[in-house]
Structures are given as C-alpha cells and as structure tokens.
Amino acid sequence: MAHEGKRIRAAREGIDALKLYTIDEAIALVKQKASAKFDETVEVSMNLGVDPRHADQMVRGVCNLPNGSGRTVRVAVFARGAKADEARAAGADIVGAEDLLEIVQSGKIEFDRCIATPDLMPLVGRLGKVLGPRGLMPNPKVGTVTMDVKSAVAGAKGGSVEFRVEKAGIVHAGIGKVSFDEAKLVENIKAFADAVAKAKPAGAKGTYIQRVAVTSSMGPGVRVEPSTVLTA
Do 187 and 155 form a contact (C-beta atoms < 8 A)? Predict the structure, then answer.
C-alpha cells in the first residue's frame, strides 16, 4: 500500500468516505480542505450508466458555466476573410488557415480550444492525428465547427467546458476555482450536471447519473448525492 502523507490524512479528516453529501455540503468541504499555495481547480466527476463502446451510448457535449471556469483559455480559429476578422475581434489568440495548419503540424500547439468554420474542415481534417488525441479536434456537436465564430470564441473565453464520456463511463470537468463563492461553484456544477443529463443517449438504460464526486486539484474527493446536483 502506498504511503499516505500527513497532508492527505489531515485533508481527509472530517470527511465520511461512505456518506453521500448534498452538493452544498460537499462544496463547503472541498473549499475547507483545499490547502495548496495556488488557487486549486474544483473538479466534478460523474459515473454514468452507459457503455461508450456502443455508438448509441456515447455522451458528448458542451456546457456554458454561468460563473466561468476561472481558467485563461487560449483559442485558435481556422477561418479566412471576414470570419477570420470576426474571430480576432472576439478575442481569439491565434487565427489562420494554411499558415495555422503548418504551425500545428510543426508540433507547436499553444491553445486549449480549436474552432473552425465548416469550409475549412477539409483542411483541419489533415490534423486529426495531432488534434484528436489532445481532444482539440473541432466538432459541430460541441459548437466548435460553426459560422458563428464570434459566439464560439466568446463562449470558450467565457468559461464553456466540453465533456466526453471516457471508456469507464465517466465524465469530468473543472468547474471553477476554490476562490469562487460556494454559491457560484454550486451553480456551475448544477449547470454542468444539467448539460450531461440533457446529453443522455438513446441507448442508455437504467439509472443514468449513478455516482457524483467533487474535489479540488490537491484535495480529497467528496461523494455527492446525485439528486442534489440536478435542477429538475
């Protein structure tokens, strides 16, 4: 068994590993137990009753966090002409077409979100092996392939988060910082949970959202009663 340090033991004190806390109680504990010298990210994880190996049970989407994520998101946009100008005006960090393709192919990926206009997807498609494994490939299902680049860039900069279920049936995301007010963190988590709930695939059977937990970057996990994160 791996050695458990004093900091971890101290952080776990007062948290019942078997108890399902309300989301308000869980967030209060996460903030209380965050002890790193930096502003830790608050993360939520959900175990879903799906098997992503089946196409009709894939869960993927995007959520616009009402209070932002607290992250500085660097955005790249593949666009030409007026749409490129629109992207720059909206605050995109990198904008281009063939020139941006060459930059990415060289291995220089200095962005966290990639957006493209539909007409440039044949070009962006060449970067599938580079962007795909990093979760950066533009996709119309999450609003990153669009002619409305202004809204897409604004959403990415404002705190929208993408989610995609992993092989084990888990979705997770950073939904804020420990410096956020508790109410804002709770609101962000509920918005994320609602987005995941709305993305429920047709092939999902039984209980969809089975388990929920929240934690900070360096803190212990706190189990949450799933019904307390859903607004409806």
Answer: no
